[in-house]
Each structure stands twice: as C-alpha cells, then as structure tokens.
UniProtKB/TrEMBL annotation, chains A, B:
The keyword Lyase is assigned to this record: yes
PROSITE patterns: PHOSPHOKETOLASE_1 (PS60002), PHOSPHOKETOLASE_2 (PS60003)
Taxon lineage: Bacteria, Bacillati, Actinomycetota, Actinomycetes, Micrococcales
Source organism of this protein record: Cnuibacter physcomitrellae
Keywords: Lyase, Thiamine pyrophosphate
Molecular-function annotations in GO: aldehyde-lyase activity; magnesium ion binding
Full protein name: Probable phosphoketolase
UniProt feature coiled coil, ranges: none
Listed cofactors: thiamine diphosphate
Length: 826, 826
C-alpha cells in the first residue's frame, strides 16, 4: 500500500473521477490562506459577518504571515496528487512560523476537529481556531507537537530535511514532502542534510521530495539562495546529487491559476519520476542487483513572500519584501485604514465560496481532500506511536561476561554491547537502526557488521568493508545528522541508538534541547501516542581521551541534559559491561524519554554478574558490600561513592589502599548507575526518598564521591539531601592535556591517591594520626607523574587494569535479596 | 604589502632567482614527511644512525598518519608560491590529527626553534620534537594553540573554512589557504561555510583559497565527496559559487614529481586568477563602482590517504585505504617485521639528502623557505595578538539614559547599546565587526546601519535596506558561522560582537567549548599574544519569548559556559540600559575571555544613572539601598536579590508590595550584574571573598533570589557560602508556552506575588501572622491568569512596565561612596 507505481499512475490518469480540478486546488489554497490570516488577526467574527471592528482583532499580533501562503500552496497541490495517486505522503514544514498554515490545512482536512473536539468544523470551531493561535493557553506560531501531521518543530530552524530522511528509512511506501525554507537552508545542519540522498535505498526506504521555497527573505535580510543566479542554484543541487526542477510565479500580480498549472505539472512529473526510479530499482532488486544511486527529483519554487497579502501598506511595498515576514498590517487599534485593509485582504479570498453559512468548508474543496489516513494531517507516520511495535529484545544471558570464577573478568563494555545490538538487529530487521558520525567501529560496536552493513549508495571499492546499499547502520561525519535522523526515525514509530564520542555530543546540544522540549510538549497532547525513547551511547569518554588531548575531553553534556524536565531525561553511568547490557535493555523498552548512557570502550574489569547487574540497574544505586569494609551492625566511618566506570575503579582502588593501611576503618562503598536517583523524589521520578538516601549515604558521615563529570552536577542533584554538606566530590576539573590515562586522573584530582587523602582529611579521627600516610600518598603521586613524563606511559601498577583492586583481597559478599525489583524506577 | 598583483607576478616570472625549483619543493615535502613519521613513532635516534630498536620507538603510538602527507604537500607548494610572489599567506589545517605535519613544517621553517628554544634546529632538537608529540607533557596530535601558525584546532572538525573567512575580513593583503578535509566537509558547519564567499569583498577583504583534500577516508568509512562523480563535485562547487580546479595524483605508485608539476601549475593559476580578480575589483573601485561577485578559485586535490607510507602491512593494503588513518604500523614491540618496515619507510625519504650530519635541514630545502613573517608558521596574522590595537572606545555620556528626574526613564537597552556600537564602528572603521544570524535588527541594534551596511556580495534589489558590498555587519542564518567568523576575526587580532537570540545560542555550545579550550590552552603558550575577548550579546531572552513559545525559551547557555575554566569565562546580566552600556564598554577592553552578556530589547525602566551603573558594574554586585527598606544600623530581616533585567523588576515589585503591607519589614535589595561575583574568590578571579559575601547576603537571613536562568546555577555558584542553605532561588523551571510576559513569570514562579509569598514563608516572624496576606497573593495570581487567558494580554497593572515599582514610593538613597573602583574585577 502507498507505493506509487507507474501502473497506478496510469490508472488514475484514465480514471476521470480521480482527477482533481485545479479550481478545487485553488479553492483549498484560498481557504487555507483565509484561515491563516484569521488565526493571525481575529478574535471574533470569523466569517466576517459584520464589518471588522477593533474588538474583533487580537490585542497582540504575534503570528507570521510571510511563509504561510507558500506552505498552503504546496499543501493544496500535494492533496491533489495524493487523491489522484492514493499516495502516502507526510508534510514537513521547514520554514519558521508556518503554524497558521499547517493548522489551517489540518482543519480543512477535518483532522483538527477529530483530534480537538472543542474546535468543530463550523463557525464556532473556526472562531476558536482563530482565537487559540498565539494566544495564552493556545497554540504556538510554529508547526509543533500540538500540530496534527507534524514531526518537525518550526522554532529552531534547520532540521526539516534530516527529519524527512529519518522518516522515510524503512518506509518504502512513504513520501516525505519537505518544504525547506530558504532561510533555514542557510543553517549548518540543513546545508549538509542535502547529502542524505546517499543513504536512502530506492527499494527498502521511502523517498524524500525536497521543495525549496525561495520565499526571498528572512526576518530582515534576503536569503542567499534567492539571490544567486538560477544556473548556480541548478549546479548546487545537481552537485548535491538531485535532479532540480524550477517553478516560479505569482510575481507582479500574475494570475495564480497560471502558477497552479505550472506547479501541478512539475509536481506530477516529479512524482512520476520518483515512481519510475523506484520501479527500476525494484526490478533490479528482483533480479538480485542494485541500481546506481538515482538523482532524485527536488523542486525549487519561487513565489513572493507574503503572496496574496497586502501589496502595499502605508505607501511601502509589502508583498515580496521582508516587510511581509511578520504581520503586514499592525497597529489596528490606532489605524482604521489598516483595519479596512485587513477586511479587504480576507475578503479577497472570496470566503463565501469556501465556507457555507454555518462556516463549514464548502463542497468546492471536497475533491481536493484525501480520505482518512491519507490526509497529511492524519497520516499515522506523523504520529509514530500509532505504528510503534515494541522491540523484540533478545536475551542477554549468553553475552553477559561470566564472573562466576571471581569478579574482574576483563571485557570491553561497548564491544559486549555491540554483540547484543547485533542480536537486536536480527530480531528486529526493519525497525531498529544505529546512527553515528563515523564512530560505530571506533566505539567498538562493530559486531553489528556480522549481520548488517553501513548503508551507502555511493561508489563501493574492493577495499571497503561493510558498505552496501542496504544496511542498518548510517554513518556520516555529522552529529547533527545522526541526531536528526534518529529523531525522524523515532517520531515515525521506530527504534534506534545514536553513538558518539562524549566530547563532541555538544554539537547537538541545541537539537537535544528542542527534542526534549518536543517530548515535554507532546506529553500534554492527548492524541500523540508515546514513541520509543531517544537513547545516546556516549563512549570514548573524557577519562580515556588522554591521548587525543584537551579538545576531546568534555563530560558536560550531562549538565546540559539535566536542565530539561525530569519527566523526559534519564542519565546512566554503568560501571561495567554487564551493567551496560542491562542498562541498554532497559532503555530500549522505554517510551518518550531521552536516555543518556555513558560507557567506556577500553578493556576493564567486569564487576557484577548479570543478575547482580540487573538488581543494581533496577535499584539505580546500591551499596556494594563486597567492595567496602563495613562491619555489619555498625555505621560506616566514611562513604566512598562512585558514578562512572573509571571513577568506580579508582574509588575501589582507594578502598583497597585504605583497607591495607587502616584495617579497622569502616568504608561503605556505593555505586550509582542511574544518576537521577541522587535527586529528591519530588524533583525527579527516579529520585530516592529522603529516608532511603539517608540510609545509603548516612546523615552525617563524610562522603567522598568520585564522579565521571563536572563535580557541580553531583552537588546540584544532592542539594536537598540531609548530608549534603558532607559530600565531597571529585570529578573533571577542566584540566586536560595529551597524556596517559592515570595522569589524566591525577591532573583532575580523581586518582586513588587523592581519594585516599580525601578520606584521611575528612574523617576527623584520621586527620592527625594519618598525616604521614597522607604525605606518602602525595609522594606516590609525584613519583607517578615523574615516571609518566619520563616514559610516556603509566607505571605498571596503575596502568590499564593491571593495578586495579578487584583481584579481590576484599571479602566478596554477594547480597541475596538484592533484586530491588519493587523499587525499580522506569 | 602582501597584495599580489599581476605585475608583481610578472616580475617574479622574469626574476630567475625567485623561482623555486620543484626539486626543492619535493625535498621540503620529503623532509616534512620524515619529521611527521618521526614524531608519530620515535623516542630516540631521530637520524636513524643505528638500526631502529624497540627502545627507539614510543610505547604508545597515538599519532595519525593518514592526512599528514597531503597537508605537507600543500604546505611545500604554498611555500614555493610565497617565495616567488612574496605573498602573505596563512595556512589552516582542517583535517583532524594533522598535528605532526604542521609542526614538522614549522620546524623546517625555523619558527619552531625560535619559539621553543629547547627544540633547536639540530639532531637534539629533532629528537625532542619527536619525543614531545602525543607524549605526556608534550603536544597534541592536532593543530592547536601550541602550533605556530595555527588559528584552527584540529580536534572538533568543521570550522577551518569559517575561521579562514573570519581571518581575511578587513585583511585585503591576506590569503588564507584552507585545507578542508573531506571528512570534515561532511559536518554541518563546513557544509554551509562554502557560502561565505558571498560576504567577502574583493577590494577591502582578503581571499580564502579553499583546497579540498580528497583523502578518501575517515576513521572507518569512505568520504562522501570522494565517492561522487567528478561532474557532481564540479557542479557542487560551481553551485557554491566557486571556480573549482582539480588535481589528482600519486595513485598506483605514480612518480610524485609528476604530481608536483601538476599541482604547482594549478596552484599558480589559482593565485594568478585571484590576483586578476582583485586587480579588476580594485580598478572598478577606483572608478567608484563594484565588480559582480567573483567566482573565486578553489582546488580539489585527490591523493592517496597515507601517501608515501607503507603500501601493504601484514598482506593488507594500507596506503589509499582507511587503514592508513592512524598508525599504519602498530605493535612494534611484538613485531620485528613492522619495525623493519618503519625503518624502510623513513629511509624512503632519503633523509641524508634532507638533513646534514648535525640534523639541520639541508641547503636543498632553502629555496623553498620563505623569510621572516612570510613563513606560514610565523605569519603574525596567526598570532593575532601581535597585530592587535586596543579599540578606541567612544564616550557613553551622550547615549546614557538620563535619570536625573527620577529613576525609571523607559528605554530599550539593546537599542541604546546599538547607538554606542554605531559610534564604536565610526571610531574603529577597520577592525570592529558585528556578526549575527539575521537578528541584528530584531535585537534592536540597528542604529549601526546609520553608519554602515550589511556586507552582501549577492544581488541587491531596490527594496533592500542596508545591503551593500562593503559593510561592518555580517548576517547569515547560521549561529555556527557567526561564531566561527568572529573567532577567526579575533584570532587574527581584531574585535567584534556576536548577537543572537538566547535560546538558539546552544547551537554553538560545542564551538564555544572548543574556543574556550583554545583560550585556556593559549594561556599556557608563552608566545601567543592576548587577543580581544569573544563577547556574546544574548537578547530576545527567555522572559520575553512568551509570544514565540517554548522552543524559544532556554536560558541554559550560562550553565554551559560556567563549566569552562574560571580564567576565561565572564557572565553579565545588566539590569538596565545604562548598565548594559558600561558592561559592553568593559567587555570590549578585555583580552582572552569569553564574555556573555544577557540583556533585554524590550522597553524597560532605567534604574541607574551612568555613574551609578559604572560603580555597579565595577562592583559586580551591590546593595541598592534605594530599592530596599533597610534601616541604617540594623540587620535586614530578609535579602531579596536579583540577577537579570526582568527578575530585577519583579523583585523590585515584590519589595513594593511588601513595603506597603508590612511597613516595618527590613528588606535588603541586592542586584547582581557580574554573575561570577557569587562564586568564591578561590574558584573565580571575580569571586567575592567570603567576608564580603557574608556582609552583603548576611550569615543567616533568608535570601530570596530572583534569577534569569535555571535556579541551580545560583546554588552552584554560592555553594561554598556561609548562608548558602538560606538562599532560595526562583528562576526558569523549564515551563514554557505561548503566552504573555507576566504569565511566563507566573508559570515559572518568578512573579512578584510568588516572591512575596516566599518572603512570608521564609521569614519566621511572618509565616503565621501573614498567612492571610499570602493567600491574597495566591488569589491575585489566579485572577491574573484568568484575565490573561480571557483577554490574551496581561492586566494593565502588571503589563509591560506600567505596573513596575520604580515610580518610586521608596526613598531614593543614592550612595555617595559607591565608586567601587578599587574593588573592580577585570
């Protein structure tokens, strides 16, 4: 269903009843324009039954007109093609402030009234539709989660095209019609998104039809693409690998019907060409071969900004200038002439032809209205939760690292995870994907290549490995594109993972922001169904970027993430391979969250059995009796806590040193995998209750906390805790250089010796008695640094895993009741 | 000086002594390659005086070879052109991990030894050069601040081209040769950077010569641009507005001399064409006209990745594959064959021809070495502090808002600042620029257009305003480009300002990170001279984005910024127009910082006279006696503090309400303009001492803090303060929607009524006695919200500025000794 073949096309050509007359397209367009102007301006009298008065208009005019007529024009024409071809099309509005247009079309579709019962398809509904727009308690002026049919927020510009590409992956019947604004086309992400045509397969994926709208102007400037010659523009899109087609019209008062004719022809040809390309590819595929990367059609549409709006206001040109960007007519309260012009403008659409006396869309529009799910505002792909199937999650048991002979089996956590991702791909062959900026192998997830390849429609040479025109992995050197593709893929009801180097994930800070806001807003929209969570795997993290140097060392994404609402963000720092496995398993089963997992790729000891890891993951944080020196029934003298793989090992090493030197010191060892457990339960759904927190961290004992990221984050999360003043955090201090793993820890005072000195300093009974010991620790550090500088590597006793303390001299005390299931956050 | 004219070119053609033979270019290239391999592999025996042993090699092999021979090749050829033309050229190495190459060339130039005396130009120096590379205490594997001649960090990819464009602005004699890696070309920022050719003027700006290096592979994948047909590639760069030229060579064992010949010819032609374009433009300019936007040359160079390295290792192809990306030969300790191959590889460069017995570069290289400042590693543009002139800062007095008739004169702060920026441009006509993503006018800085225009080399239409081929403002809808241009402009010794909407500045989070790290590292590099600070002006901020809705509401950039070292970050929240003026004046005089200024553009009351604003700015935070209800000699009952323009007004309104209702309540009012004053002096150079802080905020009184951003930031900054537990912060709670200004405040509990309720709740003596009053406040809030929802605007008594409390019923008590100059941070 939904595939458009030439055969189908021919049928519709022959079937006169299915041809939509351009008059209906034009009526639709005029109706959508009328409704858009109404939303921007009117509080009342939606059908203009009386001469407009100031009281009929909004006190604050906050909408934007400029881009809207173009968006409506394209929507109207796509409707015609959908009706004629029974095409499966979603619509992405790239330009900012396109809200009135897409909402108008959704109301004309009938979808709006179906989803929002208080806004029926009549004059009352129209009045409410107008009133709610950019009004307190109403809807925003961009396409947004509140907008039926939208998977792209129009606030922060630049992501429409990458969202469109994410949507069509593994959706062979789908066409994502993506209106790219010529303003947004200047953004960094949009500029590189055009290259995504090298990553879609013409048989197994759907098709993106980009429509670059040369609207001419941004807020206060012309756009670059509107001011370069057409041959340059044609060369640019040919160079990006497309087959560009140009339509221009509506200037100097040209009759819109002429523009309709030209655009309809170009759009029909583009869709015919798409069908032909797909047919050829399908035929080749049936013969077991693949076609060369096709030059997919794209359309460049040049129309006046603010088309059909006031030509002139106060003697200055408005239509086709930057003055049409926002509200062409302002100051209605003080300017009766503007009020008159508004009335004239709205009447120019001949509303009596478009709406009946009850305010219902007139029959003239009907031929141009697709039915049911074919309506772009109702297309289920744009409310992906409707189509979502839970992932089939394969068992972890065979992949988990065995620690039955003793803790410490060496494993590379992400490599182990890679094997599970491989199994996930096998179990879910068409709705799970992995995205990354050239770092899937570097982050050691390459086991996935046992069962799939990297999608690549370009040339493949004999030396290449795992490149193929069909693959479940997409790698392009742009974090923005990996982020945007996964967003588009999730919002259309599928699952996936984005893996990146930790430091460079800040490239997508703003995209994360906007996606988190999308989820936060979606939660308030009743008809939006939950989608699979967005999960980041950040590896090649700060503590093992010693060799790459300062530019590669930044753990601050976590700080950024926790600014967003607690209802949508989750942060995990699994300390070993088995805990990483259970964390990923958990994250893939969640909905509507952003999960951030930080995990190492370097060989490290496996500390927990799979069962223990499950319990630890479910608890989120646990006391590890076996790693501490507590005595049952007695309060500890000090708590050593850790979050993050490397900090956990350093903290364990510190316990080991202390246990040798001060055997009767009672150390409680706490590991935190779910960072949000630290927060108060009133602030985050995963937060521990005050009592539970106090039970673990005590009410008054010193807590030395070894943390993966910037120390302030731990203070921030534990700010309301009883024992907060006693929590002393060591973490990244923004001290970086090109050095060795252990030297990086020393540089930031997160090494075992420093942690030991911290304990001596903070436990009052030790301060004086162990001053000499503390000095020895300091001497050790100096000696270590001198060795490192001389030899270029860490001394053997702290290097890599060799010096780590799990070759356990400490008693192993696995807790039996440590299932924690009833305590599990989600 | 430094302009290359055709005439000069002809002279050098005729002057045989200035022609550099290709043999010298090749010798230079081989020497640079030899030194690069040596850096990656060797600890000792730099001249291979004995057969290599394992002990001669580094224990950890952390360098990257793949991109290096290409970088060296281009450097060698640019040297030839510089010598022959006396050209003024800087070199930007875009590909990652190009460190060994650029360092090798700097050493061959002689610059390295001049700047680092412990690394002389002999065998001893060469040994140290090798050892320090990617070694603890040494230098990173990317071009970095430590690299002579570099203004571009090679760690996070994608910024080379925008840095190059920033560098050539207002540097008409300069050519920025920018090697763009085909990996980095996939990044978002790089993809849109090509369009910057529309913003450079051929007379008043210099020229960027992009050299796209089709090296073929990233870490684990081919690159897109290397795998599209050459006609597509040609179309792409034609479409971007360039005149592309192609050179390919070195494949299948081709003699490098043949490639030298081809590349030398293409490079010479490109430089000739640049000269010709500039000459024509200069001639037109002399006639008072401007040439049409030229199609500037760019070069596409396709050579094998890891060229001249091992062809095969362990039976697998390496040269010209992704396997050449990092170290082609690894595991030297366990593999004598690899060690042998390394020796063979290094000897293949015929080092005895390249270095004399003392290890000094041989005379064969001399013809290809430019002299003095013409050496690309020594070019002063790449150490911009050398060229920096302090800005001539015009007086503020005539622009400052007059409050002599009483506080509260209404002004739009950024509009007032715009007038000063105009004056700054007049006073500094060729080294100050303003960058923004289409928001200079929207942020109300448009007074600058009284004296300048927006630079625009595209078509200009009659309807356009302030567009011209020469202008001091550059606007393109990409925060990444505004950021990168200003970085390039500052690092070459000039001044500027980047203005953006607050929410979308997160788009450049990662670029900010990398620039802050650049400054942090530069501070450790003795020969790097201080550059002008990078100053952000964030307007259209979270509290006045009520109409644009949730996607436009995010104050989190401040949290991001304070993660970086205290030595480089400064954050200012001026509460009114006059304080904004003095803050900007201060920031423009600083060096080597990142200054972030958040200020509103909406009309608001001016609270301080210019003199008071100066004192307040110098103090960073002050008690405003006139805005509180303190009684001299008595401790206050409560402190109300505010940071940010809107929070300051709300806090003042709260004081006013309290003063009426509870006349004997002693309220201290504190305003914070320099946020880092809150931090402890041990953590930030601007931090207040503990005593000074306690004096202002008391040791034990409740503090109600109204903050512009996320509340956690205030807790974080005041974490070590005596009275920290009593600080109760109201700020943005990530609750946003499309609404009205006052409703936004209510939604986030930052409104005056909530602040009043907070005071009642926190001051023990009020809690019970004023419970009824508190309830009235709650009722007020409910009534306000109901009004807002009904009318679409705020009730008049809180809307805009009308309801604000500076129409002072409170006594105005200007402090006489409030100069604070000796207390001024910098």
């Amino acid at each position: 269903m939904g595939r458009i073949t030439k055969q189908q096309k021919k049928q519709t050509d022959q079937d006169e009843t299915a041809t939509v007359p351009l008059a209906a397209v034009d009526a639709w367009w005029r109706a959508a324009n009328y409704l858009s102007v109404g939303q921007i301006y009117l509080l009342d009298d939606p059908l203009l039954e009386h001469p407009l008065t100031v009281d009929d208009t909004k006190p604050r005019l906050l909408g934007h007109w400029g881009t809207t007529p173009g968006l409506n024009f394209i929507w109207a024409h796509l409707n015609k093609q959908i009706v004629e071809r029974d095409a499966d099309v979603i619509y992405l509005a790239g330009p900012g402030h396109g809200g009135p247009g897409v909402v108008a079309n959704a109301w004309l579709d009938g979808t709006y009234s179906e989803l929002f019962h208080h806004i029926p398809m009549d004059a009352k509904g129209m009045g409410r539709l107008f009133r709610q727009f950019s009004f307190p308690g109403g809807i925003p002026s961009h396409a947004a989660p509140e907008t039926p049919g939208s998977i792209n927020e129009g606030g922060e510009l630049g992501y429409s095209l990458v969202h469109a590409y994410g949507a069509v992956l593994d959706n062979p019947g789908l066409i994502a019609a993506c209106v790219v604004g010529d303003g947004e086309a200047e953004t960094a992400t949009l500029a590189t998104s055009w290259h995504l045509n090298k990553f879609v397969n013409p048989v197994t994926d759907g098709t993106v039809l980009p429509i670059l709208h040369l609207n001419g102007y941004k807020i206060a400037n012309p756009t670059i693409l509107a001011r370069i010659p057409q041959d340059e523009l044609a060369a640019l899109f040919t160079g990006y690998g497309y087959s560009p087609r140009f339509v221009e019209g509506g200037f100097d008062g040209e009759d819109p019907m002429a523009v309709h004719e030209r655009f309809a022809a170009v759009l029909a040809t583009a869709l015919d060409d798409i069908a032909e390309i797909r047919e050829a590819a399908a035929a080749a595929s049936a013969d077991g071969s693949e076609v060369a990367r096709p030059a997919w059609p794209m359309i460049v549409m040049r129309t006046p900004k603010g088309w059909t709006g006031p030509k002139e206001v106060d003697g200055l040109p408005v239509e086709n200038t930057w003055r049409a960007h926002q509200v062409p007519l302002a100051g209605l309260r003080d300017n009766p002439e503007h009020l008159r012009q508004l009335q004239e403008w709205m009447e120019s659409y001949r509303p009596h032809e478009l709406f009946d006396e009850q305010g219902r869309p007139a029959a003239a529009l009907d031929p141009n209205r697709p039915k049911g799910d074919r309506r772009m505002s109702a297309n289920p792909h744009a409310n992906g939760g409707l189509l979502l199937k839970a992932l089939d999650l394969p068992p972890l048991d065979d992949l988990a690292i065995d620690v039955s002979e003793g803790r410490g089996t060496i494993a590379e956590p992400t490599r182990v995870l890679g094997k599970w991702l491989r199994d996930v791909m096998v179990a879910n062959p068409d709705d799970f994907r992995l995205f990354g900026p050239d770092e899937v192998a570097s982050n050691r997830l390459d086991a996935v290549y046992e069962v799939t390849d990297k999608e690549w429609e370009g040339e493949v040479l004999p030396v290449d490995e795992h490149l193929a025109p069909r693959g479940r992995v997409i790698e392009m050197l742009s974090e923005n594109l990996a982020q945007g593709l996964l967003e588009g893929y999730l919002l259309t009801g599928r699952h996936g993972l984005f893996t990146s180097y930790e430091a460079f994930i800040h490239v997508v800070d703003s995209m994360f922001n906007q996606y988190a806001k999308w989820l936060e807003s979606s939660a308030e929209v009743e008809w939006r169904r939950p989608v699979s969570s967005f999960t980041y795997l950040l590896s090649s993290h700060v503590w093992r970027q010693d060799h790459n140097g300062f530019s590669h060392q930044d753990p601050g994404f976590l700080d950024h993430v926790v600014n967003k609402q607690a209802s949508v963000v989750r942060v995990y720092l699994p300390p070993d391979a088995n805990t990483l496995l259970v964390t990923a398993e958990h994250c893939f089963a969640t909905r509507d969250y952003v999960n951030v997992i930080v995990a190492g790729k370097q060989p490290g000891p496996t500390l927990l059995s799979l069962e223990e890891a499950r319990a630890h993951g479910a608890r989120g944080l646990s006391v590890w009796e076996w790693a501490g020196t507590e005595v049952e029934g007695l309060e500890p003298d000090v708590v050593i806590a850790a979050a993050g793989d490397i900090p956990t090992l350093e903290a364990m090493a510190a316990v080991q040193i202390l246990a040798k030197e001060i055997p009767d010191l009672r150390i409680r060892f706490v590991n935190v995998v779910d960072l949000m457990r630290l927060q108060d339960e009133r602030e985050h759904p995963h937060g521990l209750s005050s009592d539970a927190f106090d039970e673990v961290f005590t009410k008054d004992k010193p807590v030395i906390f070894a943390f993966h990221g910037y120390p302030s984050l731990i203070h921030r999360l534990t700010y309301r805790r009883t024992n907060h003043a006693n929590i002393h955090v060591r973490g990244f201090k923004e001290r970086g250089t090109t050095t060795t793993p252990f030297d990086m820890l020393m540089l930031n005072d997160l090494d075992r010796f420093r942690l030991v000195m911290d304990v001596v300093q903070r436990v009052p009974s030790l301060r004086v008695a162990y001053a000499g010991f503390s000095q020895r620790m300091e001497d050790e550090r100096i000696a270590h640094r001198a060795y490192t500088r001389a030899h270029g590597e860490d001394p053997a006793d702290v290097a890599g895993v060799a010096g780590l303390p799990f070759a356990l001299e400490l008693p192993d005390q696995p807790t039996e009741d440590d299932t924690g299931a009833d305590n599990a956050p989600h």
